Amino acid sequence: MSTFKYQPVKQYEEIDFRSHFTFSGDEKRIKNTFKTESTQTCFDCICTSFVKFFVFLFFLVTFPISGFFCLKIAHQYERIIIYRLGRLIPIKGPGVVLVLPCIDHWKKVDMRTKAFNVPPSKLCTSDGCIISIGAIVHFSIQDPRLMSLSVQNMNHSIRDASQGCMMNLLCKKTYNDIKTKRQGLSYDLQVDINQSAKEWGLDVSRVELSDITLIMAPQNKTPAFMPMYGAPPPPDAGDAFTGSGVDNFGGIAQFATQLFAQVANAQSQQANEEEPSTSSTMDNLLRVLKTAVNEELVQEVDTLYQFNITGIQDGNFFADLRTGSGVVGLGVCSESPDVTFSLSMSTLQKIIAGSITPYNAYISGQLHMDGDTEKAMKLEKVVKDIKI
Q1: Residue ranges of the alpha helices (H) in 12-62?
Q2: Radius of gyration of the chain (CA)
Q3: Would strands 316-321 and 303-310 be described as parallel, antiparallel, or unpaired?
Q4: How confident is the model over 150-195, as pLDDT tens digits?
Q5: How much is the pTM?
Q6: Phi, psi at residue 101, to the nearest 5°?
Q7: CA distances, 279 to each of 261, 308, 341, 346, 369 (Å)
Q8: Is 342 helix (H, G, I), strand (E, B) or coil?
Q9: Which residue blocks in 140-248 are alpha helix, DSSP H?
Q10: Lowest CB count within 10 Å: 179, 183, 320, 368, which one?
């Protein structure tokens, strides 16, 4: 019985499988793929030589005239790529380069460093902050042959790769890290882009992150107490979560009863606060808002707000801060509002009094917003101008 001996395949020896998308042998594989000299048959070589001879002879016969069309000059920072009968020949330049008519297709490549802007794009950081950021990328061509064979549109390819690497890198960072460690993040982004650029014959020499535009601040919401392993018990839990009371069902039941009683008392207090909110209270709020609105605030905000007060009949009013000195009135505005807020009367009174900001009310669930986020954040400017 013959024994089978396993032998590894040699064509995969140079490939690095540490990543599904990274192969250390990609550059050699691309170069070997486009090696066409070894695939030519004897008949192809004879036909190619025959055509080259007659084209070169035609060039010599008509030299005084053909020299103006066939002789190209490449500067010190330029190289010329020539496809002769569809096959790429060695890179030419700098200096005078002969381009044969009819059978040569040539292209001049600039080897100097170029720069382009990655357009600003919105992304969400790991701490829930929404920002807009772009970058400036400096790159140059290191291998014109590999670039010509690998990339169809060099500018679009390097721009798309830079934008994808920037999104993948910055989405894993916090807003504070992006703001304070821009130099280190720029270097990390340069390394990530070079992983793709090296395979295309390009080299990224420098990356600079642009200014950060804050769209939504980080959500630093403190979570409620959850009885997790190793976490300290709440101060008002009594003996329900202490050492001797963990197994005491009566202690847990007593704690649950107290918790439900506190929730019921809070709901009753909130209902008592909302009951006296009558039309006189609405009139007082509208009077306060009208005194705060002026032409300077309208030019700065330029937004139509709609407020829907929950728990009150006919508790809707709007603030048109787009033209003139602004308009504040009861009911629903005839036009489509830019931002619609839904909140209780007690929450609105707290916001006007300054005891809570609109952002904190939105994070805690007391304020619901529908519309443009950037224009909704301008509500804080309106609140700051209110004098009670």
Answers
A1: 26-33, 42-61
A2: 36
A3: antiparallel
A4: 988 888 889 999 999 999 999 999 888 898 898 999 999 999 999 9
A5: 0.47
A6: -70, 150
A7: 32, 14, 19, 14, 24
A8: strand
A9: 144-150, 154-170, 175-180, 182-197
A10: 183
